[in-house]
Design brief:
Blueprint: H1 2-21, H2 28-43, H3 47-63, H4 68-84, H5 88-101, H6 106-118, H7 122-133, H8 140-156, H9 163-170, H10 177-186, H11 191-197, H12 201-217, H13 221-233, H14 240-256
Length: 257
């Protein structure tokens, strides 16, 4: 297996060269390729090569010019790479830069909070949750999801409910699916009743994911694993829940085995 990975790595390095030669002035795509190459190096336990790939990605981002919209994306990706290099303070500052570039952009908060939750960086995720909480332009539906992500991690880490997120969920009393999800976390609806209200596959997948987080917080690891695997089997790759389920299964739960 390692031999096959190494051959794939060599092919990836050769394929990358034309992208690097055409990397100016907008270098997001080559930098992202380098980031992925660094991830491949990490999988092969090639730490020096991984570091070199990540550093080259950072160099491209630092020396390239970006449109206003893409500058936000670049700042986010820089933060991800810095996290992988273990530079958590620099990573958080890059994430802050992404928000400063476009503080009303709903998508950047979803990216940041979900990524930091995946990395179990609760306090850093809360920083951006609080910013999103105070943004009137962000739809309440998204604030419910942000609150669920924060609550799920806080409870899994044994820190109990985070008051601001718990309060937001408590006051989410509308008739939407997201309001119903919020009531699951306040104890106002049981998991079985929530499932009966799911009207499509996406909602059923969200039921599996958010009940799995509660299972994990209460030590029901086996039940949570089955539900998270169901999320993966849904193949709804565009869902934030899919990415978080994959991370929990392959990182958090694998460490407990």
């Amino acid at each position: 297996v390692l031999g096959a990975l190494a051959r794939g790595h060599a092919l990836a390095v050769r394929a990358l060269q034309p992208l690097l030669s055409a990397a100016q002035p907008q270098a997001i795509e080559p930098a992202v390729v380098l980031e992925k190459l660094g991830t491949r190096h990490t999988a092969l336990n090639l730490k020096a090569e991984a570091g070199a790939s990540y550093q080259e990605a950072l160099r491209l981002w630092a020396t390239s010019e970006f449109s206003e919209d893409r500058a936000t994306e670049a700042a986010f990706r820089r933060g991800v790479v810095l996290h992988r290099l273990g530079e958590l303070k620099a990573s958080q500052e890059s994430f802050r830069s992404a928000v400063r570039l476009d503080p009303e952009r709903q998508g950047i908060y979803a990216q940041l909070i979900s990524y930091l939750v995946i990395q179990r960086r609760l306090d850093d995720a809360i920083e951006f949750y609080r910013l999103a909480y105070n943004q009137d332009q962000i739809d309440g539906m998204w604030k419910i999801y942000y609150s669920l992500w924060i609550e799920g991690l806080s409870r899994r880490l044994g820190r109990g409910p985070y008051p601001r997120a718990a309060g937001y969920l408590e006051h989410s009393r509308g008739d939407t699916w997201q309001d119903t999800l919020a009531r699951l976390y306040t104890g106002a609806i049981a998991a079985e009743a929530l499932l009966k209200r799911a009207e499509n596959n996406g909602q059923r997948v969200e039921h599996e994911f958010y009940t799995a987080l509660l299972d994990l917080a209460e030590g029901r690891t086996g039940e949570a694993r089955i539900k998270l695997e169901n999320v993966i089997q849904s193949k709804l790759l565009g869902f934030f829940e899919y990415r978080m389920a994959w991370a929990i299964l392959h990182d958090e739960l694998s460490r407990k085995e």
